[in-house]
Fold:
Amino acid sequence: MNIQRPKSKQPIPKHAQKVFKGVMFDTYQWEQDMYDGTKKTFEKLIRPDTVSIFPVMNDGKILLIEEEQPGSNSVYLGPSGGRVDEGEDILEAAQRELLEETGCEAQEFILLDAHHPTTKIDWVVYTFIAKGIKKVADAHLDGGEKIKLSPVTFNELVGMIIGHPTAFDKEIVVKFFEAKLDPKKMEELKELFKPLKSK
Structure:
């Protein structure tokens, strides 16, 4: 699968200077010419890209995760996923995160979306639908993860995304809202979330 990284609407110029290196975020600054002839310091963050995976089980249910993390007062409910490691292929990252968080492997990955969530951070979220799911191991969680698997039907997933849009990635929310308003798009979305046909 040849996955192209989307271009940022506000790329960091080559002359920008890294002024801070963090555990997850690096900060870059540069002088930007303004329309009135003055200069202003612009700033942007860089962080590792991330993957999100909606595994479709052989019975048609979508396997979500309920995740707790240290220092958070809320439980995340949504697709599996995490950071892409440095030098790691995007698809390999999706395969690794699916295996680590659910103990499952998939025969097929479909790229549903890839976008920059914000112009102020150089960061791309790649969202996949995974099919042909097979449990091959126990989940391998790091010390900051507590995960419970939560299978839902397609209709339940639609209700969750429409009912709690802030809990899901905005581009995915847009796709589901469009499908809610357009029966043709809903059928297309349903088709994407159908389980892999057994051969």
Summary: The two ends are 21 Å apart (CA to CA).
